[in-house]
Amino acid sequence: MLEIGGISKRFGQVQALDRVTFAVQPGELFGFVGSNGAGKTTTMRIVLGVLSADAGEVRWKGRPIDADVRRRIGYMPEERGLYPKMKVGEQLEYLARLHGLGAADARAAVERWTARLGVESRIRDEVQKLSLGNQQRVQLSAALVHDPEVLVLDEPFSGLDPVAVEVMSAVLREKADAGVPVIFSSHQLDLVERLCDRVGIIAGGRMVAVGTVDELRTGSVERIDVTGPPPGWADGLAGVRVVAAAPGTTRVELTGASDQDVLRAALAAGPVHEFGPFRPPLTELYRDVVAAPVATEEQS
To answer: Where would you tag: which of 44, 63, 143, 222 has the fewest CB atoms within 10 A of its CB?
Structure first.
């Protein structure tokens, strides 16, 4: 597996990474999420050796990553990393050769991946003449053309239309199903939730949560839709914490009460139209997890 073990990095007075630790298992899609400047790109650049860590270590299969291992990693930077005036096919073949493929294998790989990602008709065009979405497809082709053992992708879905998103999603799932560890960053949290086996959330250079989306959901929260209840009807219930309240809808966390106790109280407050478990989306989990350290620091 790919292990990021306690890496730290400082730029002048800015602590960009503070003992960041997580692992990506073989065959796993790992979503790496955080706000701009949280440390995602810095972490990925350290994995690739573009930057060196001040402390900590990156390991692959239990051994420190060296230049030979990095040649077997497929990397897609957030910024366009392609030569704009070079033709798509020539560029991809050149990159495949740099990774050690022979001429015939490189040409075959270029044909395979440009067809798979829907840019085979642009293979003789200069990169700068492509739309941003097609440039993104070519960028992913460059990360895949040498059949990498690990994939590290920085915002791979940026600028893609819905059809291209589905194509790229299928490719990443196929690579993971073949045993490749795949880590990618994205601000599209609904997409991360749908695709990823596990998620890591980074804030202020620190990992604040790692796990499946279900593991990041804590407590038992019920959603209740009641018509015309009196204000604060759930506030005094024993073993209940009100998570959110809006006209007609209340979300409560059960800290000791049973769901039947809460249902009886809701029925006493008014007609109940919905009562059942609430599964907060990753967007809400992200907001709550990232806000928690900030609140703690402000209180201190």
So the answer is: 63
For 49, half-sphere exposure in the C-beta direction (CA atoms, 13 angstrom radius) is 12
Please, what are the domains in the chain?
A: 2-213 (3.40.50.300), 218-277 (3.30.70)
**What is the rounded CA–CA span in Å between residue 75 and residue 151?**
6
Q: Is the pLDDT of residue 294 over 50?
A: no
Which amino acid is it at 11?
A: F
Task: Name the nearest CA neighbour of 110 among 78, 86, 133, 129.
Answer: 86
Determine the straight-line distance between the first and last CA of the chain, rounded to whole angstroms: 38
Say whether pLDDT at 214 is over 60: yes
- Residue 133's Cβ-count burial label (10 Å; 0-12, 13-18, 19+) is middle
Instruction: Answer whether residue 110 shows pLDDT above 90.
Output: yes
Identify whether the C-beta of residue 192 lies closer than 8 Å to the C-beta of residue 31: yes
Dist. CA 76–CA 64, nearest whole Å: 21
- Partners of 251 in the β-ladder: 223, 244
SS3 of residue 277 by DSSP: strand
pTM, two decimals, is: 0.81
